[in-house]
């Protein structure tokens, strides 16, 4: 029996594509922290298909926590071996709405770091000595 179960976080937004015959598939990578060595992380490349692929791409973003059940598949190409998880079931563990809030907070923080005048409420005192002209 080939059964694989992991719980971890998406390393980037899932990538949705369609095969030549029109079947949806989604590639994504899950980062899983090791139990005994907290500083070490394993990365698992995963693929899911059809409706599950479309839902994953539409509703999940980088950082969201997932539980993935599937089978391990090992492929050989150009004398190199690649391990891939074919996901039969993907459960979303990040509460609904939380990922959007995190993304919005991150965007707001990034904007405020990029533009110190973004909120418009702060006054800035500049001495004449600081002016270049």
Main pleated-sheet profile? 5 strands, mixed, barrel
- For the record, the CATH architecture stands as Beta Barrel
SSE series: EEEEHEEH
Would you report the number of β strands? 6
CATH topology value: OB fold (Dihydrolipoamide Acetyltransferase, E2P)
Strand content: 35-45%
Whole-number radius of gyration?
A: 22 Å
Could you say which overall geometry the principal axes of the C-alpha atoms support? elongated
Helix content: 10-25%
GO biological process, one term: DNA recombination
Subunit structure: Homotetramer.
Function: Plays an important role in DNA replication, recombination and repair. Binds to ssDNA and to an array of partner proteins to recruit them to their sites of action during DNA metabolism.
Motif (Important for interaction with partner proteins): 128-133
Tell me the layout of helices and strands.
Elements: E1 4-10, E2 15-18, E3 24-33, E4 41-49, H1 50-59, E5 65-77, E6 80-92, H2 98-114
Parallel strand pairs: 4-6
Antiparallel strand pairs: 1-3, 1-5, 2-3, 3-4, 5-6
Give a verbal description of the structure.
The chain has 133 residues and is of the alpha+beta class. It has a single domain (4-116), classed as OB fold (Dihydrolipoamide Acetyltransferase, E2P). The chain is built from 2 helices and 6 strands. It has helices at residues 50-59, 98-114, and strands at 4-10, 15-18, 24-33, 41-49, 65-77, 80-92. It has a 5-stranded mixed beta barrel. Strand 5 (65-77) and strand 6 form a beta hairpin.
